[in-house]
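Late entry, written up from scratch paper. The run itself happened at the end of the previous shift, but nothing got recorded in the book at the time, so transcribing now.
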Amino acid sequence: MGRHRVARLCWYIADEALLAELGYEQEFKRAFTPLEVFGIAFSIIGLLPSIASVLFYAVPNGGPASMVWGWAVASLFILCIGMSMAELGSAAPTSGGLYFWTHSLSSPRCRNLLSWIVGLQIMAAASIGSGQTFTATSAQTFGVYVAIVLSHAVICCLGTAVLARLQTVYVVLNVGLCLAVMIGLPAATPKENMNMNGWPDGYAFILSFLAPSWTIGAFDSSVHISEESSNAATAVPWAIVSAIGIAGILGWAINVSLAFCMGTDVDSLLSSPIGQPLAQIFFDRFGQNATLALWSIVVLAQYMMGSSMVLASSRQTFAFARDGALPFSSWLYRMNGFTKTPVNTVWFVAAISIIFGLLSFAGPQAINAIFSLSVTALYIAYIIPIAARFAFKNDFKPGPFNLGIFSFPVAVIAVSYMFIMDIVFFFPTTPQTDVANMNYTVVVLGGLLMLSIMWYYCPVYGGVHWFTGPVSNIEMLGEEDVRRMFYSG
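Output as recorded:
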C-alpha cells in the first residue's frame, strides 16, 4: 500500500474518531483534499465577480483612494474574524459549524436559544447568498435566476468526488481571471479622492469597508464540508485563513488597478448604459470584443460561485436536519443511495433561494435589504460562538490550529469589527433620504430576529418545547469497518 494511501487512511480514521467525539458518525465520503477545501471558500468569495457587484458602493464613498486603502484595512479585520473562526473549526470540524459551536460553548441556561438563533441566521444568510447573481427585478431576469439556481441544484446533486474536483477548476479560473485584470488594465489615471454621497470624509472611508465585507465573506463554507474533507482539523482552518489572506491580497491589487485606470469621470461610470461600472471600465480599456470575452469569464466565475454556495448551504441544512432542528427534518436528513449526498437538502435550499428571489419584485430597496442579510445575519452568527468561547465557562479544547495567547485579543478585534459593520450596514446611502430610498436592512434583520425568538417561545409548537441542540447519532465503528469503508469508497 502506497505512502499516500496510508496517510489518507490514517487521516480517515483520525477524522472519524474526532467526529465521533463530537457525537456524529461518518456519513459522507471524505473526498475533498486540502486544496479543494480551500477552493470552496475561495470560489464563494469569487473575487472579481464580487468586486464587480459592489463597485456601485465602493466608488462613491471616497473614490479610488478609499477603494485601495479601505480594502487593505478591512481585509486585516476580516482576517481576524477568519482566524477566530479557524480556531473553532480546528477544534470541532463538523458540518453544523457555528450552530454546533454555539451550543457546545454557551451556558446551559441559554445554549438552546442561542444556537436556535444562530441556526436561523445562517439559514437566512446562506439561502440569500446563494442567489447573488440576481440583480434585476424584471420577470424575464427572474426567470433566468430561477434557471441558474435549478442548474446549481443539479450540479450539487453529483457525487462528493465530482464536487471536490470542481473546486480545483474554480480556483484556477478565479486566480487566472484576477491576474488577467491586474496585468491587462493599463495605468491611466492618478489616484484622486472622491466623496459623492455627502457623508463626512471619515465616515465615507468607513463605508468603503462595505465592499470587502460583502466580497470576503461566507468563508465558513469550508467548515460545512468538513465531514467530506480529509485531515479536516488542519485542512479546514487553513482553508479559511488562506482564502481570506489570498483574497485580501489579490483584491487589493485589483482595486489598485481599477483606481489607476477608471478615470476621473466617475458619474459616467455609475450612470453607464451598460449598467455595470466594472464592465464599463473594461469596455473603455479593452474595446467591445475583448470585454465580451473577459466578461463571459466573469459570468462563469460568478456562476461557479453560486454553485459552491448551494453546496455549502445544503450541508448546513443537512446538519440542522440531522439534529431535528428544521421542519421536515426526517425528509431532509436523508442520503441519496446513488450519489451518497443529501440531494433533498440541495433542492430545499434551491427552493428557499427562489422564494427569497421573489422579493425582488418589491423593488430595489427591498431586495438590497434582503441581500444585506448575507453579511449582517452572518456576522451575528459569527459573533455569538466566538464570544461564547470566552464569555461562558466551557471545556473548549484547541485543535491543531491555535493562536495561543493571541486568541482573546484577536477575538475581541473580530467581534468589535463585526458589531460596528453591522451598524454601518443599517445606514442609508446618503444622509438625506426618504421613505423610498431608506435602507430597510435593520427592519428585515430585526424582523428575522423577532420571528426566530417568537417561534422559539411559541406555545406548544415552539422550539423551547422540543429543541435540544445537537443530537448524537453515533454508532461507533471498529478500525476494520473504517478500513473497509475507505477501500470501498
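The chain is about 70% helix and 0% strand.
(Scratch paper discarded after transcription.)
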